[in-house]
Every structure is written in structure tokens, then in C-alpha cells.
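User: Predict the complex.
Assistant: Input components as received:
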Amino acid sequence: MRIAVVPDGEGGGRLRELAADGVSEASLWRVSDLAGAIADYEKHAAESPRWVWASTDEVYPPLMEHSLRIGRCHDVALVEALLLGHQGRFGEARSLGAAWARLHGRDVPPDLAHHPGTGVVPQATLFEPDLSTLPPDVDRLAALVEVHADQQRRIAALPSPDRFALLAAVESAGALAAVEMAHVGVPWRADVHDKLLTEQLGPRPSAGARPGVLAELAERISDAFGRQVNPDSPAQLLRAFAAIGHPVPSTRSWVLRRVEHPVVPLLLRYKELARLHSANGWTWLDTWVQHGRFRPDYVVGGVVSGRWATRGGGALQIPKVVRRAVVADPDWTLIAADAGQLEPRILAAVSGDHALAAAAGSDDLYARLAGAFEGDRQRAKIGVLAAMYGQTGGDAAPLLRTMRRTFPRAMEYVDAAARAGEEGLLVRSWLGRTCPPPSPMWRRIVLGDAGSGAPDGRDGRDSDEGDPAGRAARERGRFTRNFVIQATAAEWALVFMAAVRRGLAALDPGAGVPQTVFFQHDELVLHVPRAAVDSAVEVLRGAEVETRHLLFGATEVRFPLDIAVVECYADA
DNA sequence: TTCGACTGCCAC
DNA sequence: AAACGTGGCAGTCGAA
């Protein structure tokens, strides 16, 4: 059962049950307590309803304020973006109003930016802003029902409607999970974080000033150079290194590490600490952590490959050292579950390469592959990654020859994606997420579009120097080569997360309710009452099996979960 | 003063 | 060892 929902912005709203065809009218009603009505339905409906709404970002957060958790939804904006992408129209406006306008041949309004504010500061809005971009005279509910029905038709007309429907479902489930995670937050011990900062940087300085340790290092660096140098300025550092007879092409750490001069260790230390201070220092702590929780702002589908992005807070790049501050509440524990070696396993599954799939049936895929690479696990790993990333430099060439010989179908899968990219074609993930088309500029340079006739001459072997067409083509080839893997890996993670979410919701709440608090590409972190740890781990294990079968059927590929039950995230 | 390009480092 | 994919973000520096 699908039910279309339009909030009225004052706590109530209108709902309409959708018949199986998505169009004909079933019951329609108006409620003054939307959260209550939805909760009733979730509780009493024979089958878990799927709520159809314009955008989870807009509709779900106010419902969560009423402690409402819903099971399933269809997020019209997210699904619209997926469908547009599939048509090669990546990036076009996706909101309900835009989809409605396209249906009616009207001017398509651009999407409005969603500004939930910076993490901890709650939005003090009197009215929920309407971001649907529908014209004011159009009935919201009627438009929603119409656009949803159209989306269902478009999905049904695709070559693999079942797969795409699964994609639409898990993308929507991800949106629910993202709102829930932002609401719950990652348990974060500000005192531990502060102590860590003080140990490394010295006492907290007054606003804007350099912490003591950094200031001292900066002084010693200037002394070592024999001139005043701001170590935060790459330009000044380049000049300073040249002046002391050690010219460097850049000031990257790995470049400096090869320079033998007493200033280098000082500088490396400075860079490390300066990074900590600027990215995850006291300012970050003040901005993003409050009441013992870090609340990042996830952007579902924010990455072309379908991975999530975050807006502010840098949630997807929390450095290892800072994870010390992520500590479970008393009598609670953290469960970190990540899918080890996810991408090569995805490659094995989607390509149907039996040799690679056999290796992917073991816990350590790379170790299994070592035999083909002179017994060297590390070389096997580089070979596999080079195949998926399109690496050609370094030692990659001989490893790729081995890959091609040993895993021909896997290599052909990624090579085909790369060729498609170089020709300006689109590639898709396993479930149908589609890469963006090349830019007009790219088409001009590589394909010679827009009048100039034949493509620029290139034979694929020339070096990058002076061959912008070849360079651009290979760059896009690497992108599409990686896209088919990364995007499918992201799908695995979404399906897995949806399965975990459903499994946790079905647990007996008597032992306390486990919460998903963090998601990072191929890793899920749960915050779990001690009494519920075993059942939560069971849910995770079951979700992996379910995900594997749902995506790949009876494959021999395994997706082993590394599950760590810890007090502190740094110990995972 | 504001803005964007650029550099560099963090995560997967 | 350092050209290999997706990103976010802070800082510098020159242009508007």
C-alpha cells in the first residue's frame, strides 16, 4: 500500500491511499495531527505502508520531532534524479514542481537549496518553507499523485524495472536513515576531544590565535630557514626551500619527506598538527558537537556514484586520531560493521568472472589472488585496484597484464566501461544508476562536436603532453571505469543499510533499541544498549545475506563483514 | 571586503 | 612510490 502525503506546514496534512495502479483514487482524508495519523497507520496497517512524498528532507524531520519512525517511503525528488540520470539528463531540476512542470510542458523551475543550518543550531522557523517549487495554484496532493504515477510508469518501462525499483526503494530508505542519523547523532565526548587537542596542541588559544605548540613550531621553522616563513603558505615554503638550496616541486608531505634538512621534520609535524587544529579543532567541536552528539548533515546521493556526501562538519573524513572522542554512552556500546574489500568483490559479482568470484568467496580476497602475482599479496592488491581505478603509471603495467590473463572477464567488464567513457557514452551501475554525460566542452575537445567535423587525431598511445583530446578521453575513461564499480558498491551499502534498518526496527524493544548513528560508504556504526548487542550483530549478519541475495542471487562471492564491538570508535 | 582558483590533506 | 577513482574542507593569494 502506498499513501501520498502532503503536510500542511502546521502539523497536519492530507493523505491519499493509492490504488495498485498508483492513479485511481482511493480514500482521501485530511488530518490535523499528521504524525499521529501516520503512526496509527504504521501500527495497524496489515502491510507496512510506503509513504509517497515530495522530499524526505522536508517532510520527515518534523515528523521525527514527534518521535515518529516510519518504515518505507518513496522520495519523489530522489527518484526523479535517478530517472533523469538514466535518461542522460543528470543534474536537471528534480523537485516535485520541476517534475510536474515537465509533465505539463511548463517552464521548469530550478531546485531550491535546502538549508538545514549548521548542525547543532536548530532552525527557528515558524513555517516549513515549501521547497516543492510547484506553482501556488496547483494542488499539492494531486501533483504528487500524478508525478508519482508517472515515475512508476517510467520505471516500469525500463529494461530492468525490478532492479531500478529496488534502487528507488533503497535510495528512499537511505533518505530516511540519513534524517534519523542526523537526528540521533554520533555519541561524542567533547571532554575527550578537548583533552586530545590540549595534549597535542597545547591549551586552547584565544579565538584566532595559533595554539602554543603550533606557534613554537612556526618559530623554529622560520629559524631553520633563516627567514620569516608562514608554514601555512605553500608559496612561501617553495621560495624558502629554494633559498636554502633544496628546491622542491611542491610542498606535499611525501615530497618533503625525501628532503634531507633539519627543517623537514619540524614542518611535517607542523602540517600534521595544523591539520588537526583547523579541521577538527576547538572551532569544529563548538560548531558540530552539542549535548554529547555530533550531528552531521548527510546529502543522500550527493556523489555522482550514489555515495553520500555531507554538508559541513566533514563527517565522512573524521581522522583516525579524532575517533578517540567517539565513545558509547554508559551501558551502551558501539558496533562498527564494515564490508571488507567491497569493491573487488563487487567487480567479481557484476562481471561474472569465475576465477575472481572464487577468490571473493574467501575472507581475504587479495591473499587468495597472491598466487597469480608471484605469491605477493600486495602486488595482487595493487593489480586489482589499478584495474578498477585505471591506474597505468608506476608498477601497474605488468600487474594489469597479469590481471588480464588471469581474470579476463573482470578486466573486460571495467575495460568496456572505460571504452564507453572514452567514446562519450553513458555507463550504469548494477541497479541502473547512471553516470553524468560528458560536458559540451569535453565533447568538443574529444569528439570534435559542434561543427568542426572529425575528432581530433589520437591513437590512444600518445603521451598526455600536447594531446588534450587524449588526456580528456582517458580521464573520462577512468571515471566511467570506476563508476560501474563504485556506484554498485554504493548500492550494496544502501541495500545493506536498508536491511539493517528494517531488522533493527523489528527487534524486541525490551532490551533497548539499537540506533544507527554513522554511515561512511561501506561502513555502518550502531550505538547499542549492551543487552541488545547479540541481537544487533545477528541483524547485521542477516542483512549481509539478504543484501547479497537481493543484488546478485546465487553468487559464490561473499561480502564478509568486519564487525567490531567496542566502547570507542578508535578501537574498531 | 568578497570571491574563486589553487594547494594540500583527510576519508572511503 | 607518488598521475589512480569519488568527495569535503581550511588556508593562502590575487582579482574584482
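Confidence is low (pLDDT under 50) at residues 116-127, 452-464 of chain A.
Let me know if you want any component modeled separately.
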